[in-house]
Amino acid sequence: MTATDTPHVLVTGANGNTGRHVVAGLLARGATATAATRSATPAFDWHDPRTHAAALDGADAVYLVPPAGDPEPQAVMLPFLERARESGVRRAVLLSAAMLPPGGPAAGSVHPALPELFDEWAVLRPSWFMQNLTDDHLHAQSVRERSTITTATGDGKVAFIDAEDIARVAVEALLRPEPLNTDLVLTGPESLSYRQIAAILTDVLGREITHTPVTAAEFQRHYAEAGIPAEFAALLAQGDTAIAAGAEDRTTDAVRAVTGRDPRSFRDFATARAAARRDTDR
Length: 282
Known about the structure:
single chain
C-alpha cells in the first residue's frame, strides 16, 4: 500500500478482544473498516461462505481472527483467503498464537498460506492474553467466583500481553506503506507464573487469589466440562503442558519495534481493569 492510499480493511472477529480495538485504531488513523461479525449487517460467519462476498466487497486488506474454538480453522479460512485474493485484497494480517508454529495446529495451519497468496502479509503470534484473567474466560470466571486460577502450568511462566497492545501492532501491520512480510511473536514486558499472577491480583483486588495446580488430564476435563469442544480443550491442555516445560518463558521487543511504545505490564493492566470495574459498579 502506498502512503496516499486510504485502505478499506475487513476486520473479522470485530467484537473480540483485539478486533474491536483494531477497528477503533483503523478509524482513528483515517482508514475505513468493515466490522465483520455474525450480528453485523451484512452478517459474517466463517462457516457460511454465502456471507463472505459481501464482507469482502471493497476490501483491500483483511485482519483475520480464526473462528473461535475451531481446532481446524483452515477448512473455512483457506477457501476464504483464495476468495479474498480474487476479490482484490492485497494485504492479510493473521492473528495466531506464540505457541503455534507455521504449519502447526489451529491457526498455525493457516500461517503458511499467507505468503503464498499475498505479496503483503503478517502473522501476529501473541502470548497469552491478560484479558483471560479479567474478562469473559474460564480463568476470569474462576477468579470472580472461586478466587482461584486452575492450570496445568506448574511454575511455568508466560509473558502475558494486553490485547490492546496486540491491536496496536495489527493496525501498524495493516496500514504501514511497506508490509511487514514476517511473523512476530508478541509478548508483554515480563514473564510471570500463575502463582505470581495470583499474587498481583491479590494486591490489586484486596482479597486472596490463589493458583490451583492440576494435571494436564484434569485441566482438559475441567475445560471440556465447561463446554469447550473436546479437541480444543486438548489443545489448551497441550498449551499448559508447554508452559510448564518453559516454552512460553520469553519476552520479545516486537511491540516496541513496530509501535514505538512498550507493552503494558500485567500489574498496570489489572489495576486499570479493577478501577474501571469499580467505576461501573458505582
